């Protein structure tokens, strides 16, 4: 039913897009392989332009004019926001009964998601919320939360993802709903999108554009900060949640844009920091203290990437920018409290921007690169490399190694709780280290032996593969695998093979961009045999996947997993009661 619905919607949307020009020069991506396609109205022309960089704190760039202009439509906007809180839903929570999920199962998954909050502080569940209240008031958010928290149960999670897509299609495409419940649910789904990630698919970016359009339609981008400034106390739950969602949408848009090279359609705005500052001054949760520094360092990362992109690989000021950015980064990092410096989200952000600063746009070349300036030397190499550029690349090797060492210190069992931003940063580190170890044609003077002496890339890949094996989906699962964890081991294995080949033939392989080409050429294939995709990731993007088993088999697998959750909850409660009883008993004996 879901496949038929998505197919019909795709055809309708395709017809609409032919007669509707994209707004603001942004072309809505439509791909029948991606499931839910975007509709033209979801590309709003009210996306605000890039503003100057913030002037506050150590990461500040050019100064900003102080204050926000008062809104002429304050009352109208506030009424719109308040109405969107109570907007009726087009679908109820029938999936709960359809999948046989008891209150015990739902509460167990909600508790697990609450433990994941420090990885994505932009959507928080109040302590007063339970499964019953969320099913009535926030059904879409409940569904998204349960999807993210059910990663240990592949059949249940797959069924929940199907329900998520169907609910999103019904409520957004058919009913045209726009409310905070949908926005928060989309953000949670995007934050842990690697559970249903397909390389080459545009679905992540499509979902992100829907979320951005909701921010615009709910006017969070224009009025959230003004609404906050009108209140000395943040007693309005909607305003708190709306501000977190606004900042969370910017966070996801920036992360996805910088990782994929696609346009960021929700760029930094001064109001974002004002929202984050108000949440920090009047926190409801401990994670509210994280939002301001996370937003600030993310904006700084965008400034770094944009500066290097504008300068180009032929720029003569690359090392000057790197020195300036490094000073600002370290001063900002030292200004944070120890508690904030120990949060994984900020640790990842700090090391990611540090790597970006030191590689100077020369190493991480994923996505589109702007053409070199007209006066620059033709080609893609630097004619004469400054020793300071080489010095920064040496520091980049050390920083990348340091980040991976920190990542490997995280227990493998915790990897399924990490958000997609953390995995993007792991891929960034591997990408950078691989290129510095194999060869950097953009910088002919770079000596890859420096990387070999500092880091054993093969050993690091083995460690990462070992960690991934512990969370790889079970081979006896009854459905095709679609998560990042199912395909990443094979992808990294391919990287490892190409690195080994390059290491054996360093005289021939001087370009890391061609290492996989050389790997493919080294394996003779009969002329009658179809050559497989060079990178395993491309095989996963093929829409012709293994046939899923019949419905009774799937339902039995889901029922088994649901029973397993109930058993885990029961044994967990018994263990807690036994521990608590022992503690109170020993305390009474001492008195």
Automatic annotation (TrEMBL):
One of its GO terms (cellular component) is nucleus. InterPro entries: prtT (IPR051089), XnlR_reg_dom (IPR007219). Coiled coil: none annotated. It comes from the Eukaryota. One of its GO terms (molecular function) is transcription cis-regulatory region binding. Keywords: DNA-binding, Nucleus, Transcription, Transcription regulation. One of its GO terms (biological process) is DNA-templated transcription. Residues 133-276 form the Xylanolytic transcriptional activator regulatory domain. The keyword DNA-binding applies. It is found in: Nucleus. The keyword Transcription regulation applies. CDD domains: fungal_TF_MHR (cd12148). PANTHER family: FINGER DOMAIN PROTEIN, PUTATIVE-RELATED, ZN(II)2CYS6 TRANSCRIPTION FACTOR (EUROFUNG). This is Xylanolytic transcriptional activator regulatory domain-containing protein.
